[in-house]
Amino acid sequence: MPADRGGGTGLQRSLGLASLTFYGIGLIIGAGIYSVIGAVAGKAGNGLWLSFVVAAVAAFLTALSYAELATMFPKAGAEYVYLQHAAPRGRWIPFLMGVVLTVAATATATSVALAFGGYLGIFIPVPPIAGALLLLVVATGVSLIGIRESSWINTTFTLVEMGGLVMIIVLGMPSARAASLAEIPAFGATLGAASLVFFVYLGFEGIANLAEEARRPERDLPRAILLSLAVTTVLYVAVSVAAVSLVSPARLAASTSPMADAVSVVSGRAGNAIGVIALFATGNTALITLIAASRKLFSMAAGGDMPPFLGRTFGRRGTPSWASFAVLGGAVLLLPLCSVAEAASLSSLASLVAFLAVNLALIVLRYQDADRPRPFRVPLAIGRLPILPVAGMGIAGLLALQFDGRVYLAGILVLVLGWAVYGLRLRFGPPPGGTVG
Known about the structure:
Layout lengths: L16 H13 L2 H4 L1 H8 L3 H25 L6 H8 L5 H32 L4 H18 L1 H26 L5 H4 L5 H11 L19 H30 L2 H6 L3 H7 L3 H35 L18 H14 L5 H29 L12 E2 L2 E2 H14 L4 H24 L9
Antiparallel strand pairs: 1-2
């Protein structure tokens, strides 16, 4: 039902399988592959492709858990909703996870906006922060127009991004050398590289945040999650092979624009084209990351863990207006503080922690809520114990141990912030709400 202007609480169901899949691909591809591949190449060398495979396995195992949970609880908010059901007495758990992931998503939007500002400066002489601010405001405006219109823009930009990756593959694959690609780095180096490259797979979980805007969430959400991850994995592995076939891993690691430099070896015009495509990639990532973060706040408000005004929607558009403005404000405040690399590591760590929690939530709900309908079910189990979520927890935990101390410090600060907000909510606000859905 359309929401009333300024005071509605319903989201419009207008997304089908294709739109959801393109959202997932757009979220996953984003700006990450254009920025972190150089740093990963410095760690993994010619075995760069193997790090993408390891990270893809970790993402796929958890994607199965998201697919089952999204069909059990087709609500905006994803992790927040799942943890509310898995730990109904520990209200601080879903609240804290919601805060952590909202901050991480906001920081990601800020960092890719700064990257956009840097790329924009190549063509127009404006400071990076000015370009970043412009993008954040425009992207928020687009997200408020409506989810269907945002979907059209996302689909267009995602096709452009995919075109750039295909260009790199076509130019680099003829130079691929089997002997070089067979040089497998040490186990520790592979894990370290995989923990960083994991950032470029983040996004499939964002599809679950669009559950209340999907026309057939029980059918389409699992398909969109798994399809988007499969498509991007194939592209990423092929791009990693092509990149180290065009230039050496050391040169990729030393470059501030590794993709453009790699392609420039074959064609200078192609290198410039990759720079333009990077503008589309960063712009698209900012748009859909802001959308995903606002849906988390919207769901937390619906659950009573955030002020009620954050649960209001904008007129007949059915978009969460105040939640979108709140995320925009947070992103703007972070502009002077974030960088792409810092946000990549922080987002990876926060998401790995969330993936641990989601897999655990699925295991708990197999026992506590065994009779709830599951249109999609993760395969393989011993009795009620699902095997793949256990494996997902193991690999996510292993990757979460690969970051440096500054990343963990930033993560602790986010947790402290979350605890402070929760304490203030308990002291001065109404009691946190019950389970969503």
